[in-house]
Amino acid sequence: MASKTSRDVLGRGLRVLGRAIREQPRIFAAAVTGSVLFGLMVIGSAFVVGGVVGEVAAPAIARGSVARGTLALAAAALFGISVLRVVGIFGRRLGAGYMQYALQADYRRRVTRRYLDLPLSWHHRNATGTLLSNANSDVEAAWYPIAPLPFAVGTLVMLVGAVVSLFLTDWALALVGLAVFPALFALNVVYSRRMAPRQARAQRLRAEVSGIAHESFDGALVVKTMGREAQETARFAARAGELRDALISVGRLRGVFDPMLETLPSLGTLAVLVVGALRLGQGAITVTELVSVAFLFTVLAFPVRAIGWVLAELPRSVAGWDRVRHVLDATGEMPYGEATLDPAASTPATLAFRDVHFGYEPAEAHLPGTEVLGAVSFTVPAGKTIALVGSTGAGKSTIASLAVRLVDPRSGTITLDGIDARELSAAALAANVALVAQVPFVFDDTVRANITLDRPGIGDEEVWAALRLAEADGFVAALPDGLDTMVGERGTSLSGGQRQRLTLARALAGRPRLLVLDDATSAVDPRVEAAILAGLRTPTEGAAPASILVVAYRRATIALADEVIYVEHGRVVARGTHADLLATVPGYTDLVTAYEQAEQEREQPRPYDEVSPLTSGLEVEVDR
Ligand SMILES: Nc1ncnc2c1ncn2[C@@H]1O[C@H](COP(=O)(O)OP(=O)(O)OP(=O)(O)O)[C@@H](O)[C@H]1O
Ligand SMILES: [Mg+2]
Question: Which protein residue has the closest C-alpha to ligand 1 atom 24?
């Protein structure tokens, strides 16, 4: 941004304004009409005041008496003009405010909508703090100049009107106007050019400050336990300091230019008085005309500032708009197909991976992306439970994401009941498959809302059934308001194991035909974990029978699976029953034994439900 020339910023800023006008043409027209009415009344008031002085006050002083009729006429004219001015101001403000906030709301919606459409790979490359600032301060900044825009447009019309009326009055006075008005305009342009890089910098720093703040709140646990408060505060303070400096430099520039913009019209008034006195002496103009013109310069000073406000906000608007457009123009969303799966089928689904290769997109486009999965093929037959076992970083979560189509493979196919996942509609996918992710996410809402997610057909009965299956009914029933209990953002008022079971219940409530559990019960005590899986495999009421793909570590859990798929370095190296693999694959035995030892060292099952959320969250971290 800083490298772009200011002329460029002016042009691009005007194009952003043009877009705003095209989106809200009627409101804009109404606001400008109000503003033009106001402008014409300002000129009118100058001439009425001139008339009052020339025709009423001066003769009255000369004669010592006032003509009643003239006085009444003057009063009526002044009153009428004031009323019309008020109407103009009202129309302009209402229109400008409506337009600004309507655009902001609309673009906030568009940006957040876009976030949800963009693929995970895009989200991996963009920090959450930046996304927040895109949807908030960038959208706001982009439409900031809309507030003074109708005023500025009305002022331009007013300036033209003023010059015309000056020429109708006297050419010499008109020349003063011709000197002052363009100078005012030029000063405003210089002002906005100087402002451009400063505003762009401030806008970028706003995003960075919000990014750092977001990161340290989000990672509050790590920050606290690692004693990083001071460093985090320092990191934040450094960037906040830069933002402060950037804003001060904006303020300093304002401090220099604002008085200049204020002074120029006063100098104009002075010039009018000097030139006007001469012309009065020559008999070229009347007292009425001189007073009118002098007064005109005085009342023009304020509206002319509106042009400066628009120009001064343009750079910030362009910077904000660029960042908003970065989101709106981002591509790569996954197109969904039209295919549906038989909605009547309450049978489990069959999932098949065939020769699937996958790699994450590199953070920078020119870097080569490494392959994370190579030639992965396996099937989860209808109604079966398949355990996915492998050491950390082997690619288990990646397989889970592919199975529910959060990402697409580079090559190879993933099918559900024989249909390529890419051909399924978004609704079909959502209705048939559910992923319980490795990191549980809980919304800042009631327990009920967290489970139903506003999906139709999930009443309290279904919610309780899902909670029972997830072994979560006990603790939810014990919550102060039961299903109506508010759980904090990201479930901070719940323990790690409670949070996991809540997200599991959420998945179950949708009655998926394929359930993918990515280490979804790691923070739950092992016996409860086994009970959950056993319950899922022999569904009673409340759950459609589902095929299950489960990332697991514990022997008791793995042993429940019909088959185990053992992955190492993104490849399936062995498959078979748990007993087969234990007998034939040394690496597998080592891994399972190591996990078991770790589990035993902890000995007692941890009473997760009793410990504070902070500690239990920490243990989850240490767990893996
Ligand atoms: N968003 C990402 N961007 C780039 N690389 C990634 C991303 N997520 C995972 N990887 C890489 O892909 C590989 C597989 O990761 P994955 O998360 O699938 O492992 P995992 O088997 O689930 O591990 P864990 O047991 O620790 O959860 C790892 O080498 C990891 O570094
Ligand atoms: Mg994982």
Answer: 392
CB neighbours of residue 25 within 10 Å: 11
d(C-alpha 474, C-alpha 466), whole Å: 12
Structure tokens at 10: 């002016």
Provide the pLDDT for residue 332: 74
Of the ligands numbered here, which is closest to the C-alpha atom of 125?
A: 1
Distance CA 185, CA 445 (A): 53
Q: Using the Cα atoms of residue 439, residue 445, residue 450 and residue 454 in order, give the sign of their dihedral.
A: negative
Residue 624's pLDDT is: 31
Ligand 1 is surrounded, with C-beta below 6 A, by 124, 360, 372, 390, 392-398, 438
Please give the C-alpha separations between residue 37 and each of 30, 53, 154, 238, 360, in angstroms, as whole numbers. 11, 24, 8, 49, 59
Q: Counting runs of H as helices and runs of E as strands, what totals does the chain give?
A: 23, 12
Residue-wise pLDDT tens digits, 390-424: 988 899 999 999 999 988 999 999 999 999 999 99
Q: Pick the atom of ligand 1 nearest to 121's CA.
A: 1
Looking at the predicted structure, is the pLDDT value of residue 99 above 70?
Answer: yes
Nearest residue by C-alpha to atom 28 in ligand 1: 393
User: Per-residue b/e over 76-98, b at no fewer than 16 CB within 10 Å?
Assistant: ebbeebeebbeebbebbbebbeb
Q: Classify residue 55 by its DSSP letter.
A: I
Q: Which two three-digit tokens encode residue 240?
A: 């906040």
Question: In the chain, what is the straight-line distance between the N-terminal and C-terminal CA atoms, in Å?
Answer: 43
Which of the residue ranges 222-236, 483-497, 543-557 would you say has the lowest mean pLDDT? 483-497
440 CA distance to ligand 1 centroid (A)? 17
- Asked if residue 319 has pLDDT above 90, the reply is no
- Give pLDDT tens digits for 129-161: 778 888 888 999 999 999 999 999 999 899 888
- Nearest-CA residue for ligand 1 atom 16 is 395
What is the 3 state secondary structure string of 167-211? HHHCHHHHHHHHHHHHHHHHHHHHHHHHHHHHHHHHHHHHHHHHH
Q: How far apart are CA 57 and CA 45, in angstroms?
A: 16
127 φ/ψ angles, rounded to the nearest 5 degrees: -70, 145
Does residue 597 sit in helix, strand or coil? helix
Residue 610: pLDDT band by 50, 70, 90 thresholds? Answer: very low
pLDDT over threshold 80, residue 363:
no
Residue closest by Cα to atom 7 of ligand 1: 360
Residue 502 to residue 444: CA distance in whole angstroms: 13
For residues 1 and 190, which has the higher predicted lDDT (pLDDT)? Answer: 190
